[in-house]
Design brief:
Strands 1, 2, 3, 4, 5 and 6 form a 6-stranded mixed sheet that branches. A two-stranded antiparallel sheet has the order 7-8. The radius of gyration is 15 Å and the shape is globular. It is of the alpha/beta class. It contains 6 helices and 8 strands; from the N terminus they run βαβββααβαββαβα.
Length: about 170
Amino acid sequence: MRILMAVASRHHGTWEIGEVAADVLRRRGHEVDQRAPEDVASVDGYDAVVLGSAVYTAHWLPAARELARRCEDGLRARPVWLFSSGLATQPANAANSPLEIRALLDRLGARGHRSFRGRLDRAVLSFAERAIVAGGRAREGDHRDMAAVAAWAQDLADALAADPAARVAV
């Protein structure tokens, strides 16, 4: 099965989550193209899509939201899973719940959404981003659980093997 892994990532941390998931899917026999959302003109030619984004100020990055809007009809016609990565350390865990996810799940008919903890390096953030992070009292460091990412990708591969239209409970 040919899968598009479209990942919007500002500082490469979310991109690396996509790489882990893509590697698992490849090991399960799928052909996976990982691309930035702005480089995707169409989802034609793909059997399934995984769309992910970093979360900033409780929103997906504009490139991911725009891909979902631009390719909405094509996404609705195939199995789609969503994932997010952002602040997930207490007390800032609410910042990893993008406001638009429920509507996006419904609009695209997506099979599920999974939030993953992110990586926080204040040195690469803009002034506004540092102010938001300070207000949320987020802890610096790499909080990503790549084993959880790999397990989630195994679940996606299992669902696709059993039934391409199957829903994955995540």
